[in-house]
From TrEMBL:
Mg(2+) 2 binds at D115, D118, E279. Its cofactor is Mg(2+). InterPro entries: FBPase_C_dom, FBPase_class-1, FBPase_N, FBPtase, Fructose_bisphosphatase_AS. It comes from Pedobacter westerhofensis. This is Fructose-1,6-bisphosphatase class 1. Its EC number is 3.1.3.11.
Amino acid sequence: MSGIKTLGQFIIEKQADFSYAKGELSRLLRDIGIAAKIVNREVNKAGLVDILGDAGTVNIQGEGQKKLDIFANTQFISALTSGGECCIVATEEEDEFVPIDSPVSKNAKYIVCIDPLDGSSNIDVNVAVGTIFSIYRRKSTDGMATIADVLQKGTEQVAAGYVIYGSSTMLVYTTGKGVNGFTLDPSIGEFCLSHPDLKMPEDGSIYSINEGNYVHFPKGVKKYIKYAQVHDAATNRPYTSRYIGSMVADIHRNLIKGGIYIYPTTASSPNGKLRLLYECNPMAFIVEQAGGFASDGFKRILEIEPVELHQRSSIFIGSKKMVRMAEQMMTEFALEAGAINM
Ligand SMILES: O=P(O)(O)OC[C@H]1O[C@](O)(COP(=O)(O)O)[C@@H](O)[C@@H]1O
Ligand SMILES: [Mg+2]
Ligand SMILES: [Mg+2]
């Protein structure tokens, strides 16, 4: 067992990077790790326990909730409540933000925005799903934290991460000093450092987009797809199309191999589909920390000012050269249409 480094050991070790650190963020990351293990246990035996299928309820976004969405939501809120470091949870599965009012969290100063179960459409078919989280420090100093403490730009994140429940279960996170990946070793029940200092290739040859929506895509996206499909060996084209339908899994693959994930505006999602606070911002922080880039086609995701809890955004995220190319094509058509001025 020599040589392994658990998530807990790594977090404590890295705490030294922050002179003011008192261990609160470390304990918060520990709490998220604990809930992820409980969710992983259910995901791994999903067909054997009553956790597959619809919960019969609908969230504020009009999406049918899966039993596993609800289970994961409950596990993360309960771990964050008993951990004592979190004062508000903003989650995809609750209409409003959830104030954590427990005796242990009176002085809690962290806000957690979370997508408890990402890739819900893949739950029942045994395809990789995930959890995405983003952590902020509250801005207000006294009394109960408010929505203003939640609606912070992505640049204000102090940490972000995701868990992927795939052929193995991994937790990948950043505190703004690089990105590290940990694989769950079921034999000891610990996340162990397996992917230190992850770097996203600057360029790649994989594109991830739901082409079923093609006719409704902006012209810039249509042009990018055509560009990806051209035969040109010198630029690694045609690119390979890969789309799992779980944002975490598609971006995790591209983080390791290079690639771009695009979820643009469509007819059914005129503002994009993915949610800024608990999907776009955390994935953008991680990808940028690994050397990639993320934008809404025009503006850096992390600079977008949030105004609503479940606000959506279009997203172009991945290898820097690929995202810049896609942005260029979006800008070209927007200029042509007079939608933007340079
Ligand atoms: O089925 P579509 O429209 O391609 O959307 C798939 C996308 O929606 C999501 O499932 C949205 O996330 P949730 O499952 O957490 O609601 C992403 O994970 C995925 O990339
Ligand atoms: Mg999601
Ligand atoms: Mg979800």
